[in-house]
Design brief:
Length: about 100
């Protein structure tokens, strides 16, 4: 599984740092929000803020607008997948999940 990278408007390429619980929590909490009444502007703003946070950028304005939605999907999916893979390695993880 290749670590996601982002190319900023200025051409700088950044590799996603190792996923943290903060990253995972941010993605999980955001994905649970009901966004049905959100405008595309709000969605783009929120996605770009999360991408900036995950890549350690101070300014989301450095992200190409055309990259926001695909980059969010790629990066968020990667973070969730990494966490899930590690959780599956925990002994009795399947048993604990089944008891919920």
């Amino acid at each position: 599984m290749e670590t996601p990278k982002i190319t900023l408007i200025d051409g700088q390429e950044i590799t996603l740092p190792r996923p943290t619980m903060k990253m995972w929590r941010r993605v999980a909490e955001y994905d649970e929000i009901d966004k049905d009444d959100w405008s595309i502007i709000k969605i783009m703003d929120e996605h770009s803020k999360i991408i900036a946070e995950m890549y350690g950028l101070e300014d989301a304005e450095k992200i190409d607008p055309a990259d926001v939605l695909p980059q969010y999907m790629k990066t968020a999916s990667y973070v969730i997948r990494i966490v899930n893979e590690k959780l599956q390695k925990i002994p009795n993880a399947e048993t604990a999940e089944a008891q919920k």
